Amino acid sequence: MLTGYALALAADKDIQAKYKQINFASRDGYLPHAIYGIIQRHLGGLPGRYCHAGRRAYYPFLYASFYDYAKSRRHGGDMGYTLYDFLKAHFTGSALLAHLDEKLTEVEKNTLFFEEKEKSLSVITRFQSDIELFLRDKRARIQKYYNQTLSREEERHLIFDLGYSGSISRALSAVVGKPVDKLYFWEDPENRSADKQCGTSTRVFAESAGRDAASRLVFEELFSPCEGGVVDFDEKGQPVFETLAASEAMEADLAAVHTACRDFAEAFCAQFGEYAKYVTLTHGEPPLDICHVLLNETPFCNQRLFRNILFPDPVYHNETHSLEKKLERFLPQKTVFSGTGFDTPHTARTYKAPLTGSFKLGIHLHLHNILLVDEVVRYLQEFPADFDLYVTITDAAYTQTVARLLNRALIPGAKNVVTLPGQNRGRDVAPWILGMRPYQAGYDLFCHIHAKESSYLDFGEEWRAYLFDNLIHGDAVREIIGIFHADPQMGCLFPPVFDKLHSFMTTRNIPLSGLTNEMDQARRLLRRMGLRDEICRSEIFFPVGNMLWYRPHALRQLFTFDLALEEFAAEPIGVEGTLAHALERLPALIAARNGYQAGTFARTA
Questions:
Q1: In what order do the strands lie in the sheet with 48-51?
Q2: Could you give the CA distance from residue 220 to residue 201 in angstroms, rounded to a whole number?
Q3: What residues contact residue 14 under an 8 Å CB cut-off, 6+ apart?
Q4: 551 in Cβ contact with 492 (< 8 Å)
Q5: What mean pLDDT comes out for the span 158-162?
Q6: Which terminus in the chain has less CB density within 10 A, N or C?
Q7: Among 443, 438, 450, which Cα is nearest to 392's?
């Protein structure tokens, strides 16, 4: 797409007749400028120049006052975004911010900028004179930079920007006193009004692309260099950048995109030589349609590719969200499972080779309803490998009963059986995570099961049988051990969602994040474990019913972080909203953060 677009720009006679150079505005003009430079070097055309721009850099030329600018900011950011976050985004590193920090009360600093806009504007009004002095000096710095960058010999300037409302043209036209025309991929209706107001024009590459917000966002960030946005200019007229704490993974991913595009442009020119100039892409809809399909209409959660791309947006957000997370609000989902790990084909695993591997196996069985013990015994009697069994119960009176029913005489594979009485607190989750802590390190693989009743569902018994069939049935165990043996990076494995439950959740639109948003609790738990706490929709993937096989090392933080039994709510706790329900959603997330994979397994007939 970029090679075709650059070819079209280089060959455009109208552009060559009207302008002396093509300016590419930061940050999303970075990659188009690089590709245009390759085409221009091989085939000729106007010179191109990369110049620094950004709303935080040039807003003093868009609004009469900072008050007007702040008032124009529409809500689209984090719910906890404060007035101080907004001020910091625009005045970081300045004496003005230090002055505001000293004079503002904590209440004023913590005023919610978007939700309490009038209060925020009232505070800004008090400091309007201080702010205006700052903006006066900033305007002078801005003019110094653009007078150095945009040729004074030109009667009109031409600048590339991906698009939207035309603010860059309005601002730069005011700075240099000459019309600044635009090369846009897409435009909003406001841009047409801006052109009429400023006497500027816009060449739009993809007329219909403005409706596809997801694709727009992808190109904005992938076209950008791995550096922070420009927020100001210094006294010498040089750009001042925000700090970008880019990870090695982000640097590598952006470099891969940029290198691939450069290599393609070079190879294209080398292959076609002088004939390359006859190939142009004058309309951007076809490649953008492909992007739309890959993001919106495939089940593979392709947005996962962008998890490492984290550009801050401090004008609206006090947290730095990944590009994958930003895309979620723009990607429609047909069902509660769409766009999650549950709906991704590559998570399903099978293994049909003979049982291999000499893993040391541990099984945790939580028995709240002792009447279901016979059902478990029938499965474990046919278990095809040796294992140690740990049984937690909520009534110590049944300790001897359990010992009589769960022993090596009835279950030949059970080499050791340990019964652990405990409180009826935290359902099966607390006995598993807290009760099994001392034993995890001694095993290669561990299985967690429990005597699940789910009496609130008319298919509760079927659901339990389905989980047992796909976790501890002899044929299932052979395949599961084989999967772990064949794939050292397999961290945890569990059955797909039971069909009747899948239908139940889909028809009632029950979100996988929980009816009371258990994922917020899950994020806090990940922070307590010292792990990345952003949870993207494609990462929502967990053992529904909370039964699974796993490598203890893959889930190690789950069994070592600071957690107390008293944190679990007392029974009865219902089916949502508690610590136990949040913890159930963590195994696959923890495994992934430790470099492991999670998958599903179901026996085939």
A1: 48-51, 22-25, 157-160, 180-184, 202-204
A2: 22
A3: none
A4: yes
A5: 96
A6: C
A7: 450
Find residue 181's DSSP bridge partners.
158
Mean pLDDT over the full length of the chain: 93
User: Phi and psi dihedrals of 589, rounded to 5?
Assistant: -65, -45
Q: How far apart are CA 528 and CA 525, in angstroms?
A: 5
Q: Which residue in the block uniquely carries the two structure tokens 């950004």?
A: 54
Looking at residue 7, the DSSP 8-state letter turns out to be H
Instruction: In whole angstroms, give the CA distance from residue 332 to residue 328.
Output: 8
**How many Å apart are CA 289 and CA 360, to the nearest integer?**
51
Angle at 172 between CA 91 and CA 70, to 5 degrees: 40
First to last CA, the chain: 47
Going from the C-alpha of 427 to that of each of 261, 446, 518, 590, the distances in angstroms are 53, 19, 16, 21
What phi, psi does 388 have (nearest 5°)?
Answer: -105, 140
The CA-CA-CA angle for residues 479, 537, 549, to 5°, reads 25
Query: Rounded to an integer, what distance in angstroms lies between the CA atom of residue 559 and that of residue 434?
Result: 7
Give the per-residue pLDDT at 141: 94
Q: How far apart are CA 591 and CA 127, in angstroms?
A: 50
**Which pLDDT tens digit goes with each residue over 60-110?**
999 999 999 999 998 777 889 999 999 999 998 899 999 999 999 999 999
pLDDT exceeds cutoff 60 at 210 = no
Residue 208: pLDDT above 80? no
CB neighbours of residue 509 within 10 Å = 8
Q: What pLDDT, on a 0 to 100 scale, did the predictor assign at position 164?
A: 83
In angstroms, the CA 539 to CA 523 distance is: 12
**Paired tokens of 42:** 């091989």
Reply yes or no on whether the pLDDT at 336 is more than 90: yes
Are the C-beta atoms of 204 and 184 separated by less than 8 Å? yes
Q: Is the pLDDT of residue 345 over 90?
A: no
Residue 258 near residue 224, CB atoms below 8 Å: no
d(CA 315, CA 114): 11
Q: Is the C-alpha dihedral spanning 468, 474, 477, 482 positive or negative?
A: negative
Question: CA angle at residue 503 from 430 to 493, to 5 degrees?
Answer: 45
Contact 593, 532 (CB under 8 A): yes
DSSP SS3 for 512: coil
